[in-house]
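hey can u check if this looks right to u? its 869 residues, i copy pasted from the old doc so theres a chance i mangled smth
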Amino acid sequence: MLTGNEIREKFIEFFESKNHRHFESSSLIPDDPTLLLTVAGMVPFKPYFLGQKPAPTPRVTTFQKCIRTNDLENVGRTARHHTFFEMLGNFSFGDYFKKEAITWSYEFITEVLKLDKNKLWVSVYDTDDEAEELWVSECNFPRERIVRLGEDDNWWAAGPTGSCGPCSEIYVDLGIEFGGNENSKLGDPDTDNRFIEIWNLVFTEWNRMEDGHLEPLPKKNIDTGAGLERIAAVVQGKANNFETDLLFPIVEEMGKVAGVKYGVDPKVDFSLKVIADHGRAVTFLINDGVIPSNEGRGYVLRRILRRAVRHGRLLGVKELFLSDLLDVIVNLMKGSYPELETNLKHIKKVVKIEEEKFSNTLDLGIQHVMNAIEEAKNKGENFLSGDVTFKLYDTYGFPYELTEEICEENEIKVYKNEFDQKMEEQRELARSSREVVMEKGQDAFIETFFDEHGKTIFTGYESLKETAKILFVKKLDEDKFMVITDRTPFYAESGGQEADFGTMISGTGSSGVVIDVKKQKDIFMHTVKIVNGIYNLIEGTEVKLSVDANRRAAISKNHSATHLLQKALREVLGTHVQQAGSLVSADRLRFDFNHYEAVTDEELEKVERLVNAKIAEAVSSNIREMSMDEAKKIGAMALFGDKYQDVVRVVSFGDFSTELCGGIHVQNTSEIGLFKIVSETGIAAGVRRIEAQTGYHAYETVKTMEKLIDKVSKVLKTDASKLEEKVEKVSEELRNSLKEIEELKSKIATYEVSSLFEQVTEINGVKVLVKEFENKESDSLREIVDKAKDKLGSCIVVLGANNGKAIFAVGVTKDLTSKVKAGDLVKQLAIIAGGNGGGRPDFAQAGGKDGLKVKEALETAKNILTEKL
């Protein structure tokens, strides 16, 4: 019986024997702004399927880590739902097609995995005669076990338009104990748990146009996916993915922690499976740089992590447990993902911090449940509605199961069907915004142009000038054109580095300014603005191209400094730091990175000092091209799309920094001159941003700071060397002055209250003070209210102030709140002045836009009090 790890290895070995190149799993954070997470095995290869980049090799095989959360509530309830899973895949980019995809999948399943041929079923698309005939003729597959299914099941599409094609899926029949009878076939009702899909072959061959008709794609592609967990379950004879060796050790370990056993109680099994699945998802998400937050990827992580913690509570585990469970998970997965072991300390730290936070939330959730129960009883009700139970779950993150348990103890009913209805409404919203894996079809122009001319020859590493032939011209507007030449020295916007600017001059004297350069499938597209002479950029003619040398030099300094910065951050903060985005322009650099807390001033100083030390050392750059395997051996850091190229460009600065990079760099770090961090901020949960400058721009920033210091020194009448001491002294004096002011305000308030006694009136025996002030702040009004209540005892105090805007403060002693509530009264006053507000029954403050309405509002207050008292 093969283990999960052996299945993974044999899959890769099999397709390598079919001349596929093995690429390691890509990050769960895709290099794709249209996707939140990597949801399928083909996601890393999307640019090759769409023709945006030339494929590094026509045949690829991978095992890809994936995350999906669209059916989160089913994880743990079913045998095969997961948030984290691995997808085995083999891909063809315009190379082989249906025949090879079908025969190789069947060969692997029957000859390597040795699954029983008699238990296999196949589905093909309704009209795909070719696929059915290939199964029969090439695999000798019984026609009676081939089922034709419609568009919902066996047609894959990017969306309403774009890339699409038929699918063929391979299923395993688990037997009649899982549904149906001896005559049942694939697709029959009530057989979903019997016929299990283990392999999907997608034949991407069409482009659906806006009017709905299909046109053949320039190149046909194969995208196949096989879920490792499902295959392992079938191979190992398990009806449940969680009982395979990929997951069961985690289930067992959690059982030991909770003091329970798997297989005894379905509710216990449910929680154990949730924790096992979610534990893997949490581990891999954090390893790839995701940090818990309330939005985006961070929210996905937080939701999964908290669901795992909730199920720990359902198993009776009160203490923190999830971070300790990671050891088992990493031990299971480190063979194929060795980086997990390297980052384990960081992963545990993030999990522990989040688990501690949510443990407090759970305790608060219990209090919310008790409050809801008390409110229901006060209304004479013996149930909590679905609105209440769902709000507890959705707003406070409190599990329905715990709500149900607490309610039973307090003889309060809950209705699961109402809760489920609310959950279904939420699922519908989620379904309407599911991830889209593909975009519209390939750019036919780029594909055709590439086939005819090949890629643009980039000469910008060696020279800033070039004579080139125009291959294509397209008018963009009155004076702007898109121009493609056979070669160019202009660097196209890529990897965060801005494009080169410069000039394009024709032989007849027409000149244009190159104001942008974009690249698709290694074809460089120049945006040229004509500035001298009439338009004379003609296909087939020669032009002289010249890059703005000053701009190129400034960008080079910032790009090289970015490499030094990343290495410095990893040395100072830890190796968990990964790039989350960057911008390299002529005047500054911006570097986004994963880090779970703010960078301290001391840490920033260490980073800045380390970068400047490397600049002062005058380290020469060493730029080489090599294979990916060679790059890995020397420890080059790979980012995003770089990892799949046959030949990669490696940029090193001594033994300090080594990265894969196609950008422009200085020849020696001394050219950078000076590196200055301008700011460090958080831009999202777990993502920090550093902005910095180099060279002359950094010098200008430092000079500005010096001028500011000099100006402040003159204002404070001291010299720069004593500025810190002077500022501390002035700050202390200011604090003392503010303290004296507050004390004086308090005395004034006491005096004012004493003078106000003569204005106190009585309404039906209740002491009432209503008073208008000019230019009083809200804190002063509050102090007067408090002192008046102390002096008068039982009373109601209503104060208003006109500061251009209206400010109100209302105080009601507790013995009178049954008659008058401060929050209700102050709201009515604020509305008169064009505002709103509220507060507690005994004290409330509010404001309004119109200070001139204060008098009217206070008169209204007297009328309201007369009516209520």
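Residues 432-442 have pLDDT under 50 and may be disordered.
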